[in-house]
Design a protein that fits this description.
Blueprint (H helix, E strand, L loop, with lengths): L2 E3 L2 H6 L4 H4 L2 H4 L6 H6 L5 H11 L7 E6 L5 H10 L3 E8 L2 H10 L7 E5 L2 H4 L8 E5 L7 E5 L6 H9 L10 E3 L1 H10 L5 E7 L23 E4 L2 E4 L3 H10 L4 E5 L9 H10 L5 H13 L2 E6 L1
Helix pairs in contact: 5-6, 10-11
The structure holds S-adenosylmethionine (SAM).
Length: 301
């Protein structure tokens, strides 16, 4: 029987803890964090993401940016510290009152050009206009998931989306479907702003020279990740790509390792394949590689 996994109540009324959730943004929130030091990453995640978006041609002078699900505000702090001169206005949307309060405090230096809006991501898109870029960093894994779908007898809404966008599904095995993320990409693809999103994927891809990271990983359909007081699901990126492309949008996607852009690939390979955790630094490298290897980014232009 299909059930819907929702994190709505947890985020609306709870106190989400992003350190325990081990988000990539928080792991590299400062150039002095243990992860940044272990990987020799010289800038915070938000600054690196800004560099990446400039290279992709979507962060330009006079930008108006919306970030939905900005957590503690760390991504936007890093981006503004480095790229303030390119950004005219920022709109931070979040379902969580608790996290919006933290964002307001951490971004107070830029309060003159920042608005904070409490809203459910699914309901806000009709009211957003005039932005150039939307950022959804590790947010879509929190959207609704239709669990345990029988391929031979799918819930009507899942069946309609699968047929409409010609989405691949297993032939016989029951599967989980990212219904909220697919609906969200459907909605945002109708607009003309660019969208950067990143998330834990069920169909990861690997950087050139780091294909060894696929060791022991099962590629497939979304799986549950149990977290404190709620569950998220990995995202089937190939579905999101098809949906955005069906609206005529250009889509680029890759491994999230592209954003921090690690070097020292050879020593990482050695640590990862031999599971060497003899020092704190090696342990951090092993754990982070084991985590980030399943993450992907996607840009809808
Ligand atoms: C896993 S956290 C990621 C936070 C931050 N972007 C990062 O990368 O560290 C998910 C964020 O999305 C927000 N969120 C979850 N569901 C949402 C919804 N339906 N509408 C708006 N924001 C939502 C949460 O409150 C939180 O800020």
């Amino acid at each position: 029987m299909t059930e819907i996994n929702s994190t709505y109540d947890y985020h609306k009324s709870g106190k989400p803890d992003l350190i325990n959730e081990y988000t990539i943004c928080e792991s590299f929130a400062s150039e002095k964090s243990p992860c940044s030091l272990a990987f020799d990453v010289k800038k915070p995640y938000g600054a690196l993401l800004g560099d990446f978006l400039i290279r992709l041609g979507v962060l330009n002078p006079d930008s108006i940016i919306a970030e939905a699900g900005g957590g503690y505000g760390s991504l936007m702090i890093g981006m503004l510290q480095e790229h303030d001169h390119l950004i005219d206005r920022i709109i931070m949307f979040d379902l969580s009152f608790y996290l919006l309060k933290i964002q307001r405090n951490s971004l107070r230096k830029w309060q003159a050009k920042t608005d904070f809006i409490q809203a459910d991501i699914h309901e806000l898109f009709a009211s957003i206009s005039g932005i150039n870029l939307l950022i959804l960093n590790e947010v879509i894994g929190d959207m609704n998931v239709a669990c345990n779908n029988d391929p031979g007898n799918m819930k009507k809404e899942v069946n309609d989306l699968v047929r409409k966008y010609n989405l691949e599904i297993p032939e016989y095995e029951f599967f989980n479907f990212n219904i909220g993320a697919v609906r969200l990409v459907e909605e945002i693809s109708r607009h003309n702003y660019s969208v950067f999103l990143s998330e834990h994927s069920s169909d990861p891809v690997f950087p050139e020279g780091m294909e060894y990271l696929d060791r022991g990983l099962e590629q497939g359909f979304p799986r549950e990740i149990k977290l404190h007081k709620h569950s998220e699901f990995t995202i089937r990126f190939s579905h999101l790509v098809k949906v955005a492309q069906s609206f005529g949008r250009e889509v680029i996607t890759g491994p999230l390792i592209d954003v921090p852009g690690f070097r020292n690939i050879d020593s990482m390979r050695f640590i990862f394949l031999n599971r060497i955790c003899g020092t704190d630094k090696q342990e951090i490298i092993f754990e982070l590689l084991d985590h980030i290897r399943e993450y992907r980014w996607m840009l809808i232009k």
